């Protein structure tokens, strides 16, 4: 099952949770952190939910379950151990065009609640689509150990000064270059060391002096692809795809490889006229862009030679990354 990843703004929006046990408590805790107005229907409430109810953090819906409650909810969570009731609840939500998560039942759910690494405004969600929740949890734990909590303060710096950044850097390419400069700078290390004021001072200084940044030199990277397995790409190829401002992709390139490129990279058409294509790529690189061409070398290994020759003649920085071929076991010698 393929899921569409989505971060929902639930601030002051009603969410219906059916169930009052430990599982419901875990779901409600996350919903409350997101600012949702949680409404709970359950025969009994766990001690933690009772406490939140007394504190006014959630509302309890009394009496027999009323399907009309779903109409007032942005999302629904079913956290009961009654399988028949959960199926009926999922049906009612479907009829009312409401998204529902049925705990531990991916087939009945129209959305999943992922494992989350929370660093303030920066959040990383990991989901297996309900297929392997323990695997998602393990990956979350690994990310928790790798990502310093100072990232929350770093993200907050960008959030607080977002308007000033956009005003001073209206050009997207220059803004991206400035972001790369700041992200590679010392600010996060300062925040990790507790030097918050010094980090903000350095951040604002970098923003004030943005015009001193040297415009990044553009380049063209040609990556010959001979195998659809994205795991065979070199680290250099992956780095180039992550840095791509403009992307050209031959028709035969496998989708999993294409998905490794920057999502906001501008897509350019692959022109059949190699001279025109070289001129177009060169022009894009001269504007300061990193232009990456995923060439289907398996379809025509020699097709890129003319293009590479023409690109080299333009004088733009050119890099042709070596293709990675799958390992083949050597033939076994006879006796």
TrEMBL record:
Residues 119-146 form the Siroheme synthase central domain. SUPFAM superfamilies: NAD(P)-binding Rossmann-fold domains (SSF51735), Siroheme synthase middle domains-like (SSF75615), Tetrapyrrole methylase (SSF53790). InterPro entries: 4pyrrol_Mease, 4pyrrol_Methylase_sf, 4pyrrole_Mease_sub1, Met8-like, NAD(P)-bd_dom_sf, Sirohaem_synt_dimer_dom_sf, Sirohaem_synthase_central, Sirohaem_synthase_dimer_dom. The keyword NAD applies. Keywords: NAD, Oxidoreductase, Porphyrin biosynthesis. One of its GO terms (molecular function) is precorrin-2 dehydrogenase activity. GO terms for biological process: siroheme biosynthetic process. Pathway: Porphyrin-containing compound metabolism; siroheme biosynthesis; sirohydrochlorin from precorrin-2: step 1/1. Residues 229-325 form the Tetrapyrrole methylase domain. Signal peptide: none annotated. Its EC number is 1.3.1.76. Residues 150-207 form the Sirohaem synthase dimerisation domain. It is an enzyme of class 1 (oxidoreductase). It catalyses: precorrin-2 + NAD(+) = sirohydrochlorin + NADH + 2 H(+). The keyword NAD applies. NCBIfam families: cysG_Nterm. This is precorrin-2 dehydrogenase.
């Amino acid at each position: 099952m393929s899921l569409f990843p989505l971060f929902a703004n639930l601030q002051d929006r009603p969410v219906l949770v059916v169930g009052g046990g430990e599982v419901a408590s875990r779901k409600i805790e996350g919903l409350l952190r997101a600012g949702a107005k949680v409404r709970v229907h359950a025969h009994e409430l766990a001690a933690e939910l009772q406490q939140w109810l007394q504190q006014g953090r959630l509302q309890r819906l009394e009496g027999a379950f009323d399907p009309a409650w779903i109409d007032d909810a942005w999302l629904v969570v079913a956290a009961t151990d009654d399988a028949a009731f959960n199926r009926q609840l999922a049906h009612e939500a479907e009829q009312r065009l409401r998204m529902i998560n049925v705990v531990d039942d991916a087939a009945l759910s129209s959305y999943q609640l992922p494992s989350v690494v929370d660093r303030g405004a920066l959040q990383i969600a990991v989901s297996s689509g309900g297929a392997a929740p323990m695997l998602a949890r393990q990956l979350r734990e690994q990310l928790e150990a790798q990502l310093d909590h100072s990232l929350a303060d770093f993200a907050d710096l960008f959030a607080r000064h977002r308007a000033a950044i956009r005003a001073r850097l209206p050009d997207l390419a220059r803004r991206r270059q400035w972001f790369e400069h700041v992200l590679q700078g010392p600010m996060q290390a300062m925040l990790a060391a507790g030097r918050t004021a010094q980090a903000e001072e350095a951040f604002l200084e970098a923003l004030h002096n943005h015009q001193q940044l040297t415009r990044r030199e553009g380049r063209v990277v040609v990556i010959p692809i001979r195998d659809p397995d994205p795991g065979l790409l070199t680290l250099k190829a992956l780095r180039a795809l992550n840095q791509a401002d403009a992307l050209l992709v031959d028709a035969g390139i496998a989708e999993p490889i294409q998905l490794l490129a920057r999502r906001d990279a501008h897509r350019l058409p692959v022109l059949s006229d190699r001279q025109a294509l070289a001129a177009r790529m060169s022009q894009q690189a001269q504007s300061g862009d990193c232009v990456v061409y995923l060439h289907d070398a398996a379809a025509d290994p020699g097709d890129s030679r003319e293009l590479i020759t023409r690109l080299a003649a333009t004088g733009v920085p050119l890099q042709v990354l070596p293709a990675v071929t799958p390992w083949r076991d050597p033939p076994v010698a006879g006796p």
